[in-house]
Amino acid sequence: MNSRPSVPKGFPANFLWGGAVAANQLEGAYAEGGKGLCVSDLNEYHANVPLASKYNGEATTASVKEAMEAEDRVFPKRWGIDFYHTYEQDLKLLGELGLKTFRTSIDWARIFPNGDDTEPNEEGLAFYDRLIDAIVRNGMEPMITCSHYEMPVALALKYKGWASRELIGLFERYCQVLFDRYHDRVKLWILVNQINLVSVESFNHLGICADKVENLAEAKYQGVHNEMVACARATRYAHENYPDLKIGMMLCGGPDYPASPDPEDVLGCYRHNQMEYYFGDVLLRGIYPGYALRFFEDNGYDIQFGAHDLEDLRNTADFMSFSYYYSSVCSAKSFADGNRDFANDRLPANPWGWSIDPVGLRYTLNAYYDRWQCPIYVTENGLGAHDVLEADGTIHDPYRVEYFRAHIEQMRQAIQDGVDLRGYYAWGPIDIVSCSSSEMSKRYGFIYVDLDDEGKGTGRRIRKDSFAWYHDVIATNGGKL
How many CB atoms lie within 10 A of CB 412? Predict the structure, then answer.
């Protein structure tokens, strides 16, 4: 009798097919419901800039205050797609799409407008009560992100963002409030979105004004250390008080390939990838790896550890998750130049310069599962593109269908490889403001939202051709691609 385990032939019966968004990119209503300004409310839209150059940069105290006071500049995340007022109809559409799960975030500044308020804002908590109830009512399991580029701006100005240890306790308290309030309806949590984005989205992520610190690069790694300690403490609270909650950590995924077979390039690429993985080593293994400590020492970064940090970090996450959009290349030189990487000229790319690499998703899934041996969710994957609204009111997006088809097929292959993949969240199932470029014209959704880069338009929601395709994928549990 052959008792050898069989190879899975498809997606698990209970696989979670979903979609993911972020509060700051779709809610709008930035000055309603007692909400304070969050860091993403300061992301400005710039017209007439090369697409590949559109990205959120660093900030200073002066630039933050100027953005807060500006009346003649365009900040699209302040209005998003008005989801704060339209969530009922939007979630009904997503339920029609067939989503089994829906990932969104809670805007930290809607709960604690200044970050260090004595009491949480009840009006903000009540909004998310209604939102979560509507997600569940439309047949979707909620996955909630606690921090997705929504730090209250006040914490960047009063403190040094995450470079200040005061934020550890403030974030821990914020998470406790969320767990206490929503634990009966939300079982899947991600504490910090894409925690490894230290160089890209660094102000959005860490809220560190460059003029408030002496060494910005060092301050970023100090900030992430503080953030990981806060995550570990929040995880401990969840496990001790609500043992049915599953707490996840999230990376910005995508492998780096060596620039050449030269051993120095291979080693440089490996060391680069280690410094993208180490956040997972800390949050999933509960240890600080030696290669990260050496990286700090080699670069002269004096990262301060609190007396109980190492003990706190033993409170590890239950699952890992990651976003996947593209892969990159790293050489010995680019690693030496600051752990940088660059685009792969062997691959096609979207207009924003993001390489399209479905096989890289399988590579990443295998690499992560081999490393951490825990459940995995792909919590973001999608294609930003310029969609055209035809005169007859239709949107034909075969390029999006092909992108998803190729990536989902690679997930199927990874499951056959033995990866414990639990769910997949298409990024932006409804069009939202782009994170990186703050424009609506970089569209990801299966549902078109009739708004332009300056927020003008009818706001009408229109199903794209890809809507029916993804519906069938979900209905057949990935059988019909």
Answer: 18
Q: Where are the alpha helices (DSSP H) in 299-397?
A: 309-312, 332-336, 358-372
For 139-173, the pLDDT digits (tens) are: 999 999 999 999 999 999 999 999 999 999 999 99
| Angle, helix 166-182 to helix 122-137, in steps of 10 degrees | 50
**CA gap 366, 369 in Å, rounded:** 5
Q: State the number of CA atoms in the 13 A half-sphere of 170 facing the CB.
A: 26
Tokens of 65: 């205050």
In whole angstroms, give the CA distance from residue 272 to residue 252. Answer: 14
Q: How does DSSP assign 42-104, residue by residue? A: GPPP-SSS-GGG-------HHHHHHHHH-SSS--GGGTTT-HHHHHHHHHHHHHHHT-SEEEE
Q: Where are the beta strands (DSSP E) in 123-281?
A: 141-147, 188-192, 246-252, 256-258
**Strand 447-449 vs strand 461-463: parallel, antiparallel, or unpaired?**
antiparallel
Are 42 and 72 within 8 A, CB to CB? no
pTM over 0.85: yes
Alpha-carbon distance 438 to 40, whole Å? 9
Q: Residue 160 is encoded by which pair of tokens?
A: 């040094």
Please give the structure tokens belonging to residue 66. 């100027």
| Sequence-distant (≥ 6) Cβ neighbours of residue 182 within 8 angstroms | 128, 129, 132, 144
pLDDT in tens, 416-474: 999 999 999 999 999 999 998 899 999 999 999 999 999 999 999 999 999 999 999 99
Per-10-residue mean pLDDT, the chain, length 481: 81 97 98 97 83 69 94 94 98 98 98 98 98 98 98 98 98 98 98 92 92 96 98 98 98 91 95 94 97 96 97 98 94 86 88 92 98 98 96 96 98 98 97 93 97 95 98 97 87
What CA–CA distance (Å, rounded) separates 120 from 275? 36
Q: What's the chain's Rg over C-alpha atoms?
A: 21
* Helical pair 358-372 and 263-280, crossing angle rounded to 10 deg: 60
- Domains defined for the chain, CATH in brackets: 16-475 (3.20.20.80)
pLDDT of residue 216: 95
**Angstrom distances, CA of residue 97 to CA of 15, 221, 402:** 16, 40, 18
Contacts by 90-93, CB closer than 8 A, 24 or more apart: 90/430, 90/447, 90/461, 91/134, 91/135, 91/137, 91/138, 91/140, 92/138, 93/430, 93/447, 93/461, 93/463
